[in-house]
Amino acid sequence: MHLIVYVPLVASLLLGVSARWLARLLPPRLGTRLLLGAGAAFAVTTALSLGVLASTYLGQIPVVAAFGGWSVHVLRHDDPVPIPVAQLAAVAVLLVVGLVTAAAVRHAADLVFGNRACRGLSPPAGGDVVVVDEPAPEAYALAGLVGGRVVVTTGMLRLLRPDERRVLFAHERAHLRHHHHAYRAAADLVTASCPLLAGLPAAIRHLTERWADEVASDAVGDRRLAARAVARAALATSRGRRPLPATAIGEGDVPDRVRSLLAPRPRLGAGLAATLAAALVVSILTAAQIGRDTDGLFDQADLPPAHHLVLPRR
After folding, report:
1. What is the pTM of this model?
2. Angle between helices 28-58 and 200-220 (to 10 degrees)
């Protein structure tokens, strides 16, 4: 085991630090899935590493060792993990369980609240757009359990020209059609399971905004028009609290989004693709090796069957 058990933690930290930079380089649709998939893979291997580190300490507790049928003395002698590190890993596992539970409950409550808000918003003629009579410029897509609503204020409609409104509506509908709220919730859950990936949620938010921008530019057939509409709407959007789970046009790095629309459509570079693929392969191989090393450590500490703890029958 030795140092290999720490590789997933280092990989997760590197991805968390570089996630926002990668979000600017990757094509938005593919980049959202690649980054989220890589984050999930690293989170799983990091959880495995923490579990292994914690198990080397927990396995030395006499009662646990008696149930498992291994020698505390042998395990302590052969264990390459310092006791303080293993104890810290055990605390981290408990913390992660609490963070994931809290994040799951929060997102479930947000979705229920959003669904209730959608039912309370009745668009005219059975459409999906709700116009709110408010002077403050605002526009967002509100997701429910089934479908959703595009909410826009009269202040925003007055701000934009008719062709720019087409961009706005296409952008917000793209959020609903492609379930961007689900990608963002998944990124939050992955990060809760591995806090080293702290940069992932912001990267996924930025990528999904760029994704909606690209869909809107395709809908109007004019990337410069889409860039102008995004800039005008995003910079004018108010920063008030919106219903959750809502995705608004003013999120993400707006200057970078505009630059992306003014540039040719982004493509996935061969070097970056190879790097991400290699990182995923390394994470899988590392997890397999960690599992084998852990089995070997506890196999060495196995006691003969006669020494195993036998519970009395009731």
Report:
1. 0.84
2. 160
